[in-house]
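Newbie here. two chains, one complex. Structure please?
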Amino acid sequence: QKEVEQNSGPLSVPEGAIASLNCTYSDRGSQSFFWYRQYSGKSPELIMSIYSNGDKEDGRFTAQLNKASQYVSLLIRDSQPSDSATYLCAVSRNFNKFYFGSGTKLNVKP
Amino acid sequence: GAVVSQHPSWVICKSGTSVKIECRSLDFQATTMFWYRQFPKQSLMLMATSNEGSKATYEQGVEKDKFLINHASLTLSTLTVTSAHPEDSSFYICSARDSGEGTDTQYFGPGTRLTVL
């Protein structure tokens, strides 16, 4: 079983719609959760971090964490073609090691 | 967010030569840095964790004598690919842990694309 699981996609949404990206993790002791965006040929860029149950909003992005269900999600409102990228979920127990999912490819169609 | 730089951004070398990649945290001190490798259309693969002043911890299957890591200061870690071969051609990305006041996050450098001929 992988530490972090993501649907590889591609997830296709029309411009202006809400994109919903999901991630599950296996280590119940995980404390920190991150979403990174990676454009093709580029390195990952941090979008959101979340540490406690519930929602965390930053602009068009909302991260949702449910530790009981071991589930993290990222919602992107008013999706734009520039949001088309691969989104990586990362999980850490103690910041000494981060586990990454394989990423979900998002396509936002104009 | 915090800034991490890598140098060079790309390098082409002949088989058998060694290549050094530098990773710097520009506006914070990083006691821990990570080195990843990513092949085309594949996910990030953690190679090793580098802690300032101590030996790096390598992931299973990563040859420590081939991928030499040095974390000499709180802002600099280096990865040396020794006796590089074409199969070492990949995108190498470092990241640095920013554990300053109110934060504890990992930031990535822009990556180094290595091509071994």
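Moderator note: Residues 71 and 77 of chain B are 4 Å apart (CA to CA). Chain B has no helices and eleven strands. Thread marked as resolved.
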